[in-house]
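Q: Predict the assembly, please.
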Amino acid sequence: MSFWGPVRHTWLHRTNPVVKLGVICLLFFMTVLTHDLDVIIYQAMIFTVCLLLLSGIQPWKMLLFLIPFMMAFLASASSMMLFGKGDTIWWQWGLFKISEESFYRGLHLGFKGIAFAAEGLLLVTTTQSVDLFYALMQKLKLRPKYAYSFMASIRLLPMVWEEFLIRRQALKVRGVQPARGPRRLVVRAGLYVVPLLAQSIRRAHRVAAAMEAKQFDGDRSQARTYYYPSQYSRYDVLTVGLLAAAVCCAYAGASYYPWFGIGDVRFN
Amino acid sequence: MGVPVKENLELQSRKGLRVSDILVTVLVSLVFGIVYHFWGSVYSLLKPFQADELLYGMWFAAATLAFLLIRKPGVAIIAELAAAHVEVLFGSGWGLTLLMYGLIQGLGAELVFAAFRYRNYSVWVAAAAGAVAALGSMVLDFYYSYTDDLESWLFIAKYGMRILSGAVIAGLLMVLLAKALERTGVTALLRPASSKDYEALDDPRHG
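A: Predicted assembly structure:
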């Protein structure tokens, strides 16, 4: 966590998580419903710039994120390019067929993937899970039993890892042969799955009983107080304005300086 | 003696999900989510060849397993959201996308369980839930990746494999896993006492 920790706090860090979640969800829907290649290229570029500026993480570390970006680009672009529907065929070899339409659609999907990733990272890199759940409880009236269960389970995860190590040692002590070959691997996985899940269930049940006793479920309490109060501030307005401006830039860029100008990439 | 028993049963059913139900669902799903996370990077290498579709049912497994264990309304959706939430925790750019997929997949599975009034825990219902979850992910795919614009043979192969995989992995395999977990006795912690249990208490032989 410390490696990916922000070196400076930006507006986005100070924004209420609920506002951030709402804005990013809106951006998501906008990107989902964008079918124009030029618009999506501008969106991908602008949100990547926003991410570099607003995440507060050192830019060279942020560049490491480019690796999954590129993989996503290749994965989503390649299958559409090779197997998509289209009439103007450029190249064909057996079942592979690249047509003009499928090529541009593949390109569109690649940039769409980048836009999604940049938008998602804007939220993820600037929001602590705990802050998000506290904000959801206070601002959106999420029932405390859900929020606290999620937060507690995050703390229980290292224990699951410990159980995994214990199980591995136990199997070693009992002289279970190391896995070789695919069938043995499946058998080996079976030796882990049931005990690990059973232990997790037992532990979760015990913790839940304690939480219920301490009224974490909030079923009976009317007014609740929170350790971390969640408030709206002027940074919420700034963030909304900034991201709205980014969207306007993307659309303006696409309409004044289009790269391809082919419009809707969908078939028909 | 019969009256308090009835009241108690009604009270339990009215309370809905308890912290214990939610926490168990979330923790089990997080374990799945972590498996997804490490497996996902290998898995995306298979993507251009569509071979990944045969394992796709794994993504719905958390929903059916959680329902088979807890047997209450709502757990399938929570399970899928929790599994997707792992990616948010890991700071992945796909976090939000996966949350949406999780929501719609969980909803698909939930609808099937609801259609049987949450009382049927057979292989067939679990398999149907896995298949409908696959359909849910297909609908989102249309928006996210225009898969309806793929060549028809590929489209049919892709989603045929996915639905089959949903039914086999999320259905059959998870029923077997739930049975194995039942043998360990942990599920007794989770299930609310049934009317049969209360009748056993009323047995005159116990005085």
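Chain A touches chain B through 71 residues (CB under 8 Å). The beta strands of chain A are 89-93, 96-99.
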